[in-house]
Design brief:
The structure is a single chain. The protein has 171 residues and is mainly α. It has a domain at 36-105: Cytochrome C biogenesis protein (Helicase, Ruva Protein, domain 3), CATH 1.10.8. It is built from 6 helices and 2 strands, in the order αααααββα. It has helices spanning 2-30, 36-43, 62-76, 81-92, 107-134, 155-170; strands at residues 140-142, 145-147. It has a two-stranded antiparallel sheet with strand order 1-2. A hairpin with a 2-residue loop joins strand 1 (140-142) and strand 2 (145-147). The chain is elongated and about 140 Å long.
Length: 171
């Protein structure tokens, strides 16, 4: 009888020990759900429908807190970021997206800045070339008269300039 009680006690003790050892594994397997960083990664791609031009991850209104809760729930259910964004677009329209979809007329938002940048670069380079090339045809002016370039002086002009320089250096 005593051995029977000892045997039962040992079985009960081992059973309790086994359960205690398995509880942390079960809790760990459940996971803690999506982290705040994961929720905010999706939330920063959406705008608050109540407050204009405030990303969902930075807005402190009750509506935005609820939206972040919806995002957390959807992530816990295994939804992807794109599925969550599609869900909110279906509810509130494209205006909730931080980045407009690249389709239809929205392409203008992406193309126009590039066209302006490239066009400005072309105009700048063209202007620099014209400015640089226009300096080659300039002639010096003195007293309203054009002064010929040195390589176009006649031999008589060069002789006269040399005589003037000699007079000034002696005098």
């Amino acid at each position: 009888m005593v051995t029977e009680i000892k045997k039962t006690s040992w079985v009960a003790a081992l059973s309790i020990l086994l359960v205690v050892c398995l509880i942390p594994a079960a809790v760990y397997a459940q996971g803690s759900g999506p982290s705040d960083d994961e929720v905010n990664a999706v939330a920063k791609q959406l705008y608050c429908p109540v407050c204009e031009n405030i990303p969902l991850d930075a807005c402190g209104t009750t509506a935005c807190e609820q939206w972040r809760g919806v995002i957390r729930d959807r992530l816990a259910e295994g939804w992807s970021e794109d599925q969550i964004k599609e869900y909110f677009v279906a509810q509130y329209g494209d205006r909730v997206l931080a980045e407009p979809p690249r389709e239809g007329f929205n392409w203008v938002v992406y193309i126009v800045p590039m066209v302006i940048f490239v066009g400005g670069g072309v105009l700048f380079i063209t202007g620099i070339k014209r400015w640089r090339d226009s300096g080659q045809d300039r002639t010096l002016r003195r007293g309203g008269k054009k002064v010929p370039e040195p390589d176009k002086l006649s031999d008589d002009d060069i002789k006269r300039v040399e005589e003037e320089l000699l007079k000034r250096s002696k005098g």
